Amino acid sequence: MKSHASSNYSDASSTWRASIAKRANVSVDEVSALFARTGIRPSPVPATPSRLNISRIEFIGEKVATKSPARDGKFHFVWEALTPGEWVMMTDGNLKGKSSVIEIVKWLLRGEPPSSLQDDVQSWLRQASMDFCLDEKLFRVEFAGTNDHFEGKLIQNNRATPLVLTEFFSPSAFQETMSSFFMKELDLDIIQAFRENSEKPSTHDWTSLSGVFFIGTDYKALLGDVVMDGLQSRLLGMYLGLPWISTLSIAQAHLKLADREQNKRENQTVEERNRRAGKLNQINKSLEEYRLKLLNTPSDENTRKQHRAATEKLTRISHTIRELDAKHTVLARVRNEACEAFNDDRREQLLLQEGKAAQTIFRALNPEVCPRCDGDIGEERRKREQETHECSVCGEQTTDDNENFEDLRQMVNERVNASQNAYEQSRAAVEGVEIRLGELRAEEDSLNLECDRLGRILSGGFDNYHDLRAEIRILEKEQESLQVTLEGPDQPKNHDFAILKATVEETEKQVAKLKNELLSEVSQEIVRLSREIGMTAITSATLRGNATLAVTKGGQETTYSKLTGGEKLRLKVATVLAMLSVAEKKGVGRYPGLLFIDSPTNNEMIDDDFENLLKGLRATLQVLPHLQVFMASTSSTVLQQWIEPTKLKYARGEEYLW
Known about the structure:
Strand order of the largest sheet: 2-1-4-5-6-7
Shape: elongated
Distance between the termini: 58 Å
Number of strands: 16
Helix content: 55-70%
Number of helices: 16
Structural class: alpha/beta
Largest sheet: 6 strands, antiparallel
């Protein structure tokens, strides 16, 4: 038989799903199917807080290469017998190790070293452990290692034989172990958030959620130390123990993703519609142009006749060109032969003229000595040459060739004239053929262009009558198709988007039932605690659902973000304590009752303000006896007066805490 709580859970879950289905106008099965895909699950039952206290802190290591060699060496820090209440680490100066203790505890709780832990401190550490109590169950977490080797355990100690829950052998496995453990034990849910440029929701697990337990020196966030992804409002709802808050977180993240996808699809639809409209407009213009052209375009029969006539003429001209090319070859050969004959005759003519000139010159000579031996010719030989025509040098008979020369010259001149005439005639014949060939080839080129133009009209273009009609028919079909799609209904909304939107709306309605009441009570408690810890100028405060805090201070309305560092610190403390007080009174919430405050006096807080802060903490501890507060501070007479020596770790003078 189901328990009453289980029955209420089932009823609330069923009612919630049915309301979502009604809002989205879908079936409950469709809603359930989407939830199965996205991991959305109902969380209608308010959370009840667990109690977390630290009972022992220990770490061991060796300091090396410090600025002061006297500091180098092994260290062993132990702080035990810790109970609920206030615990203080105090030093007479800064950089004495008090903040590092908080950072190491944060490392043990989270399973990963915080970014604020100094690199040298982290390198010095060899092993660390922490005992803690969670709802009366005792646990120990421990790790040991260096960069080369790392190992650790999570152990449950409230039994005769300790039970090793998990062993881990890497820093990443350590982080996964602690996150999984505390998320389950404290009934926390991973917070999903949407980032504009991300395809998937970003997630915040134990590392981010545990930030509420630590108040450091950066006060930009009212709760914890992360201000992105709307984490503040979700931390507020989660630690107040609001029902449905984890459901709302996951649903909102998926809704933002779905909204972006929906917008993307809608933008694509608009772009596609615009593209189609532009194409339709172009088709309309083309149709108008082609229809007008069709009216002015005759049938292509005349074009076919022109094409045939041009083709026939081109064939005739090409045939004539081939014949003339052959004739040109013959005539060119004849011209070349005539040129060679003319050149030969001219050379012979020149040689004849040159020989005659040389003979005349040599016969005019009257040598007195032999041109070979320089012997004297003598008067007798010269006289005999004149009488008998015997050469005075060689004795040969000399004759007068003038009559023979004239006959020869006339014959040669006649031959030159004949060969020149033959050459001129053959050259003229070749030039005539070349001129005609040029004319015919120009006409051939023109006819080729005309045949190509007419051929394109007949076979490939849109200027002819039949092709224009065919193209118009094609464009008319495209026009009709585009008009149908443009006049059709818009793309239907995505079902997932509609279901997620309905889920967020319905879940916000469920959250609002208790949220406004709790926020009002927490706001009133913030005012009371603020005044109790010395901020008497604050007369009102309004904690909003997005984790912003509006206050009235000295009669002026302002906000948390505009206050001084010391005021922010005290309001952060007051907000956490107010949440704890209201949750305790209502019996709801997830805040486990653990708080760390680091260096409160660093914010120019005067002793009176610091004393008031301590008074307020002590008053709250009387109302919430399970609360455990750790504070790290430089030495203060106020602290020494207020804190029991047994609850104080004090490094005096030049000493270090470890």
